[in-house]
Design goal:
Oligomer: single chain
Largest sheet: 7 strands, mixed
CATH topology: Rossmann fold
CATH architecture: 3-Layer(aba) Sandwich
Helix content: 40-55%
CATH class: Alpha Beta
Strand order of the largest sheet: 1-3-2-4-5-6-7
Number of domains: 1
Radius of gyration: 17 Å
Shape: globular
Distance between the termini: 33 Å
CATH superfamily: Alpha/Beta hydrolase fold, catalytic domain
Strand content: 15-25%
Structural class: alpha/beta
Length: about 260
């Protein structure tokens, strides 16, 4: 199966430059439905699902390949090459922010700009570095997930989404989590939350926009500031949007921030 079919990828819109949207853990390409169409008049828009998510081919999951974020980055490279991307724009949410960094390092000809929404190179506190969680917190979350995936999802999604006054947003995120392949999701969660990609920020010199949400439990302000400090050609914009998923909770603000930068 070709990479585009394998990852339920589509290309739409016009223009000469590609913009590729990559979703976060537990989500699928549908999470971009309020953002991606805004770029179709000026760009060729690529949407896709990571393996195990949405309508991607779950049979393509390889425990060795996808045992690190590099494997997911290799998938991004394959999709982009199959679509004919060169000097494109990559927009990655949450874990896909670091996946984009790895993809850009592996194939620098593909992307000329990166937009990282709620990025975190390491979720675990380490000395002066404040990732937001202690290792014991993450291990506890993983144990809960292994024993009761649906309960884990229902408990965690409101915290991820924030915006307690709009419970329908957390409900949508929870439904998205529940549509993922649970076995793959459990493994992807460990890769996501236990990875340390801080060293992979070194040497990345292409223009990067970091979109930091206010009151983000998953990627707090300290993490956005850290990523900004390690990327010499980056701009940090703090959105008014709260929570971790501005593509759902504040799509207009997200679109405007990206559009103004590119």
């Amino acid at each position: 199966m070709d990479p585009l079919s394998r990852h339920n990828a589509t290309v739409s819109g016009g223009g000469d430059r590609f913009v590729m949207f990559a979703h976060g853990f537990g989500c699928d390409r549908n999470m971009w439905r309020f953002v991606a169409p805004a770029f179709e008049e000026t760009h060729r828009v690529i949407l896709f699902d990571h393996v195990g998510c949405g309508k991607a081919d779950s049979a393509a999951y390889d425990p060795e390949r996808h045992g690190s974020l590099q494997g997911y980055a290799d998938d991004v490279v394959e999709i982009a090459r199959a679509a004919g991307v060169r000097d494109g724009i990559y927009v990655g949410h949450s874990v896909s922010a670091m996946i984009g960094i790895l993809a850009a390092r592996a194939a620098p000809e593909l992307f000329g700009r990166l937009v990282l929404i709620g990025p975190s190179p390491c979720y675990i506190n380490d000395g002066d570095y404040r990732g937001g969680f202690e290792r014991s917190d993450i291990e506890e979350l993983m144990t809960f997930m292994d024993s009761n995936f649906l309960g884990w999802s229902a408990a965690l999604t409101p915290q991820i989404m924030g915006n307690a006054d709009r419970p329908e947003l957390a409900e949508e995120l929870n439904n998205s989590f529940c549509r993922t392949d649970p076995d793959i999701a459990k493994k992807f969660a460990r890769v996501t939350f236990l990875s340390d990609n801080r060293s992979d920020l070194e040497g990345v010199t292409l223009p990067v926009l970091i979109l930091q949400c206010s009151d983000d439990l998953i990627a707090p302000d300290s993490v956005g500031a850290y990523v900004h400090s390690r990327l010499p050609n980056s701009d940090l914009v703090t959105l008014k949007a709260t929570g971790h998923c501005p593509n759902l909770s504040a799509p207009e603000e997200t679109v405007e921030a990206i559009r103004a930068w590119i």
